[in-house]
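User: Um, any thoughts?
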Amino acid sequence: MEKEMSYGSDYKFIPATSIGSGVGIQVLPDIFCQTIQIVNFIFVGNSGTDHFVLVDAGMPDSADEIISVTEEQFGAGKRPKAIILTHGHFDHVGAIIELIDHWQVPVYAHELEIPFLTGQMSYPDPDSTVEGGMVAKMSPLFPNEPINLGSHVKPLPADGSVPYMEGFRWIHTPGHTQGHVSFFRDSDRALIAGDAFVTVKQDSLYKVFTQELEVNGPPRYLTPDWKSAKESVIKLEALKPSVAVTGHGLPISGEILSTGLEKLAREFDSIAVPDYGKYIN
């Protein structure tokens, strides 16, 4: 049964019925976020229409669930205009090959991310030695091989626009990956942040399970460039988003977002950057 939940002082979220492994949240009339295991995927577009996109593509072996949620939101047989990626880590592209085969739609990502999506390069190895919790210790088990989307993947337009996401612009927010991007809509200051920052302490298995809400930096075990990661958070905080959907954790809005993101930008070195790890200079 649906019930109303509040994650900030100025904005209400209406969670949809739980589907499979996650809970769907109607963040805005045209933004729907679904959790699948440890990560979120997002639809941008009004429910029941033909004009929508999928942002990120979930965990491995989740294609059937993503298709099921798509058809529940938009209608039987519906498919997005495109899949838009914040970045190409395994938990954001886990189902993408099956989804492309099923839907026959293009994929867009930052040009610096393309080599990791076309079989040319692998991401840096996860850091199991980094300061953090059990998820960090488990990170060497996570898939790290590049996928090969061939000609299906295209670079995002150089002018900052986002295909089929009218009103949004992409913002280069590297650090977690070289070509990580976030998406921002100036008209209502809606932000899709990917893993530039998250709203759960992703390194802690307990907090991943409980989804305890806290504005935090990108997952430590898969972030090799902390200087760029800090600059990206400062860049996003300067936009003063009214609502944010992140790659991990619950959507967030209002005062809890503004104060949490401002604190993260101001105290990034102590909040986000681990005390030790192989990617710490």
Q: What stands out?
A: Residues 254-266 form the longest helix (13 residues).
